[in-house]
Design goal:
The complex is a heterodimer.
Chain A (H helix, E strand, L loop, with lengths): L2 H5 L5 H12 L2 E2 H11 L11 H10 L3 E7 L5 E7 L1 H25 L6
Antiparallel strand pairs in A: 1-3, 2-3
Helix pairs in contact in A: 2-5
Chain B lengths: L2 H6 L1 H25 L4 H12 L2 H10 L4 H19 L1 H30 L10 E4 L1 E2 L5 H6 L6 H10 L3 E16 L1 E11 L3 H5 L5 E2 L14 E4 L1 H8 L9 E4 L2 E8 L13 E4 L15 E6 L5 H18 L17 E2 L2 E2 H6 L2 H33 L1 H9 L4 H37 L14 H27 L3 H9 L7 H36 L11 E7 L8 H16 L4 E7 L10 E4 L1 E2 L12 E7 L3 H5 L3 E4 L4 H5 L4 E5 H8 L2 H4 L3 E3 L7 E7 L14 E5 L1 E3 L7 E3 L2 E8 L5 H14 L6 E5 H8 L1 H35 L1 H9 L4 H30 L15 H27 L3 H6 L2
Parallel strand pairs in B: 4-9, 6-8, 17-22, 19-21
Antiparallel strand pairs in B: 1-10, 1-12, 2-11, 3-4, 3-7, 3-10, 5-8, 6-9, 7-8, 13-25, 13-26, 14-25, 15-17, 16-20, 18-21, 19-22, 20-21, 23-24
Helix pairs in contact in B: 2-3, 2-4, 5-15, 6-13, 6-15, 6-16, 8-11, 13-16, 13-18, 13-26, 14-17, 15-16, 18-26, 18-28, 18-29, 19-24, 26-29, 28-29
The chains are: A alpha+beta, B alpha+beta.
């Protein structure tokens, strides 16, 4: 019932990171999770599992595609790949996020106001 | 990922998801193991990192679901399972609801067809009936409910109005049709130019009667009504253009009216043109009903004003003959009272229908209260289930919603069954309903009824689901401990309050219904004790025989023919006596009205004396009908044949003029100042001419043939008469056939119409009352049955809940009588409160039905007392069984039970 709380991030953040990662290269779920964890230097407390509902939502919105394939360790896995719509969406989300971040940063910056 | 897969391939998506998640875990475990962790630790760690597997999977699936709908569907499935599990509960509740909804939908379809739907004419809201009131006109207006229009008014209004697109006048009548099968008397309606134009309905075949057909002494043309055309010509289109003999005169058929066509509520077979001779039109002769179509945007008030403006024009343009003062009618205070045609069609039946609808709605409320109680009782036993659901994290909204879905579903199932009941119910209503119910043929169970039934189902489902849902939806943690611990606690007052209130409400509503039914019974009883002015209605056989002047011209020969028929009828086996007159009481034929002046009294010149009902009778009419002769004597045949100037009057009229019936005999009266005097030879009791509920009119009985009527110096005879045959065989099939043969043996061209017994006439005249009585009776019986079930159910449930407490009381030495008294007392308290509330409501409501009552006050103390006693007694009886059961509680068993 509390989907947003379980994600521990602001809504849409996980999706954004997933899209960004997939833009670099298609990955399967486990590799995706490891990549996000590694690149964020374990700063973000993300349950590995929470990736899957996010992936399902993206699949439904057709921002990513999935195909069954074989992983490096020779397993049957589902490999996710960014679609054109996904790329566009990511661009839009990132610019929105940067704006937001800038706004928040300015407010949080010390001094200046008199 | 197409929509197809999304809609139907979800199972595949779900299994792919779980496979993927399992693969993820496996990979993780492998990796951790390869880093040197034991497999067991690795599995735990992987799970920890991953999170709640079940929840995540459900979250993943949620992305694909139409959530609101699917939760709802889950509630539906859950509710259905609940209903199936409690089959006994479901059946009882369904039965109650479906009967309630069925009865309501049936009555609604009648109310809708008769009162709510517009009339079947184009733009029917523009159609109006031209009514006028004339408070100064004495008896005339009390009888016909308003002053009808005269021919001269028709000319004035149609020539000078500014408000109507079209207007005309019409009058019902009857005519003999010969030449098409057996001679037959048919109902006719005569219409002037303007009536059909106002109604704007296209003919089914042929054309309308046109302006040219309505000139005096013009070509004689008629239209047939659809039913008559089907019956007599088998729907043959070539009937148009043929001639039929109407009252022995050939008339050309020019068209056929569409199916179901009516003018106001009068059903008829043949439509005749009504052509007035403008040169001969007088002010008087108020015998026609007016109909008009308002110009767009003209209100009824404006049209009333328009007619008021035209009344002086009317009095200036026409007269009643040389020497009369046309402005004498100013004393009548004629005032237009135009009303929508729909009101005219519906008439006073709306009172009856609204009372019936209100009654049935009340039964529905009682039924809902009962089902609510059932739900509450069941909710009691489902507390454990609710508490467990709440403890597992279901929000109270979710629980309330699930309970409501369940109850609405039950309501809908009841609605479906109820529509079947409604279908039968409408048939039943039409069978027992008053035969003169307007728009009867328009009543059907259609989509409007379906929508009503559906709305009612949902609404009642919400109604009886809401209280239990709110009550049990809210119970949280505390309830769990209680529920899990079992029912060891004694029932708290709190837990019973809702149910007790419902039972009290049921008793109160049942009381209201029973009081209404009781008042109707008293009304019916009072009506049966009225002396209507005839006796032994079931042994009076009536028939109508008309002798048109095209068949027999001379009045003397008409009387001879009527006498010959009378003699033939008298010779039939089993006939006690036979007579005839212009009509029998309650038959509803258009009566004649005029003034009557007594000798020696002064009448101011500019005022019109009160109008009296005129009837025409042959010798023996009163003794055959059973009308009591109070003073003087009856007519003799010699007086008829010699056209003597004699007459008889009613008791009321005699008292009004001379103080007593005896004093009236021998006095002289006349119709107007230039008419010859007639001698009063006898006085008969007052007759309820217009229904047993209406006051008897002051009546003048003229001989069936005589001189001086309506100002004529020539001999006049009544040609359209009702024959009355007193016989124990009245109504018998063979007897009726013998009567027909007897009439035809005298003259084969005479149709015998309206064969019925006086009892039929009487029943028809009280049909509205008996219909209301039957409906209220049914509603009352249903309400008392439901009320008893309600009280019984609640009390026996309470007793079963209090077994432990009762067991303790008994173990501690309470006497069984005390226990009996305790249970009975709690039942009696509820009943008493319910009765008291019901009496108050009934006092307020019964005033609304006073127009249906007769001979009894809407607050009749006897009815109220009897009903209150009856209901209280029945309620106590319903308490008796659970109370007895309580006394039989074995203390040991009760205590060991938990």
């Amino acid at each position: 019932m509390n989907k947003d709380k379980a994600r521990d991030l602001f809504p849409g953040a996980l999706e954004m990171m997933v899209l960004r990662t997939l833009k670099r290269q298609p990955l399967h779920g486990y590799a995706l999770a490891q990549h996000i964890k590694r690149t964020s230097n374990d700063l973000l407390q993300i349950e590995e599992g929470s990736l899957y509902p996010a992936l399902q939502r993206l699949l439904k919105l057709e921002l990513v595609k999935a195909e069954w394939g074989t992983s490096a360790t020779n397993r049957r896995v589902r490999i996710y790949r960014l679609t054109a719509a996904g790329a566009k969406h990511l661009e839009h989300e990132v610019s929105k996020f940067e704006q937001m971040l800038e706004g928040i940063t300015r407010v949080l910056a010390p001094g200046e106001s008199s | 990922m197409g929509w197809f897969r999304r809609a139907f391939g979800r199972r595949g998506i779900y299994s792919e998801l779980s496979e993927e998640m399992r693969a993820h875990l496996d990979e993780k475990v492998e990796e951790l193991v390869s880093e040197g962790m034991s497999r067991r630790d690795a599995e735990f760690a992987a799970r920890r990192e991953f999170g709640n597997l079940g929840l995540i999977e459900e979250d993943g699936r949620a992305a694909w679901r139409w959530e609101v709908f699917e939760d709802f569907w889950a509630d539906v499935k859950y509710g259905l399972r609940g209903l199936r599990k409690n089959l006994g509960f479901t059946v009882v509740a369904l039965l109650t609801i479906s009967i309630g909804i069925g009865a309501n939908a049936a009555v609604f379809s009648v109310v809708d067809a008769v009162m709510l739907r517009p009339l079947r004419y184009p733009n029917s809201q523009e159609l109006v009936a031209l009514r006028q009131n004339a408070p100064g006109a004495g008896g005339l207006t009390t009888f016909v409910d308003g002053l009808r229009l005269s021919a001269s008014m028709y000319f004035t209004y149609s020539e000078h109005n500014r408000s109507f697109q079209a207007m005309g006048v019409w009058a019902p009548g009857s005519a003999n049709v010969t030449g098409v099968g057996e001679p037959e008397q048919v109902d006719t309606i005569s219409v002037t130019d303007g009536v059909l134009e106002a109604l704007e309905v296209a003919p089914a075949v042929g054309r309308w009667l046109s302006h040219d057909d309505q000139v005096p002494n013009g070509p004689e043309r008629v239209m047939l009504n659809y039913g008559y055309w089907q019956r007599k010509f088998g729907g043959d289109r070539t009937a148009v253009g043929r001639n039929i003999l109407v009252d022995s005169r050939p008339k050309e058929i020019v068209g056929v009216l569409p199916r179901g066509f009516r003018i106001v509520d009068g059903n008829f077979d043949v439509l005749l043109p009504l052509s007035f001779d403008r040169g001969k039109a007088t002010l008087a002769g108020f015998g026609y009903q007016g109909i008009a179509r308002l110009k767009p945007g003209v209100t009824i008030a404006q049209a009333d004003g328009d007619m008021t403006r035209m009344l002086p024009i009317w009095m200036d343009t026409f007269t009643n003959g040389p020497g009369s003062n046309p402005h004498i009618y100013e004393s009548w205070k004629i005032k237009p009272a135009i009303r929508p045609l729909k009101d005219e069609v519906i008439g006073n039946v709306s009172d009856v229908l609204w009372v019936v609808m209100g009654t049935i709605a009340l039964v529905m409320l009682i039924a809902c209260a009962n089902v609510t109680n059932l739900f509450l009782v069941r909710g009691e036993s489902r507390q454990q289930e609710m508490a467990v659901r709440a403890a597992l994290g279901a929000g109270s909204i979710r629980i309330v919603r699930a309970l409501l879905v369940e109850s609405v579903m039950l309501g809908l199932m009841g609605g479906v069954a109820g529509m079947g009941i409604a279908y039968g119910g409408v048939k039943f209503l039409m069978a027992i309903g008053p035969a003169d119910l307007p728009r009867l043929e328009e009543i059907t169970v259609d989509w409007r009824t379906l929508v009503f039934g559906l709305a009612l189902s949902v609404l009642s489902g919400l109604l009886f689901g809401l209280i239990p849902a709110l009550k049990y939806g809210r119970s949280r943690g505390a309830a769990l401990s209680r529920a899990v611990a079992g029912r060891t606690t004694s029932a708290s007052r709190e837990r019973h309050r809702a149910r007790n209130i419902l039972v009290i409400g049921q008793v109160a509503m049942a009381l209201v219904l029973l009081v209404c039914a009781g008042l109707m019974i008293r009304t019916f009883d009072a009506m049966r004790h009225v002396q209507p002015g005839f006796t032994d209605a079931h042994s009076l056989q009536l028939m109508r025989i008309a002798i048109p002047d095209s068949l027999v011209k001379e009045p003397e020969r008409v009387t001879r023919l009527q006498q010959a028929i009378q003699d033939k009828l008298a010779a039939i086996q089993g006939v006690q006596s036979v007579a005839y007159g212009s009509d029998m009481p309650l038959e509803g034929f258009e009566a004649g009205w005029d003034e009557l002046m007594a000798e020696g009294q002064n009448y101011p010149k500019d005022e019109i004396p009160p109008m009296r009902l005129y009837k025409f009778v042959a010798p023996g009419f009163f003794s055959t009908a059973g009308t009591r002769l109070i003073a003087g004597r009856d007519f003799t045949w010699q007086e008829i044949h010699e056209s003597r100037s004699v007459l008889m009057i009613s008791d009321g009229l005699a008292r009004e003029y001379w103080g007593s019936p005896q004093a009236a005999v021998g006095k002289r009266v006349r119709e107007f100042s230039s008419a010859p005097w007639s001698e009063v030879i006898g006085v008969v009791e007052d007759v309820r001419e217009n229904g047993v509920q209406a006051a008897p009119p002051e009546t003048v009985y003229w001989p069936s043939m005589g001189v001086g009527l309506y100002g004529s110096k020539e001999v006049q005879v009544v040609r359209n008469v009702t024959f009355v045959v007193r016989s124990a065989r009245a109504g018998n099939e063979g007897f009726v056939e013998e009567i027909r043969q007897a009439v035809w043996s005298v003259n084969g061209n005479l149709p015998v119409a309206s064969m019925q017994t006086m009892q039929d006439v009487y029943d028809k005249s009280v049909a509205r009352t008996s219909f209301t009585l039957v409906m209220l009776g049914i509603a009352g019986a249903m309400s008392i049955a439901l009320g008893v079930i309600g009280i019984y159910g609640v009390l026996s449930y309470t007793v079963s809940q209090r077994r432990r407490e009762i067991g303790i009381r008994l173990a501690l030495g309470a006497q069984r009588e005390n226990v009996l008294g305790m249970v009975l007392g709690s039942g009696a308290r509820m009943a008493l409160v319910g009765v008291a509330i019901g009496v108050l409501i009934a006092l307020a409501l019964t005033r609304g039905m006073s127009s249906l009552l007769f001979g009894v006050s809407a607050h009749d103390p006897l009815t109220f007392a009897m009903v209150a006693l009856l209901l209280f007694g029945v309620a106590l009886a319903a308490c008796w069984i659970p109370a007895r059961r309580a006394t039989r509680v074995d203390p040991m068993v009760a205590l060991r039970y938990e």
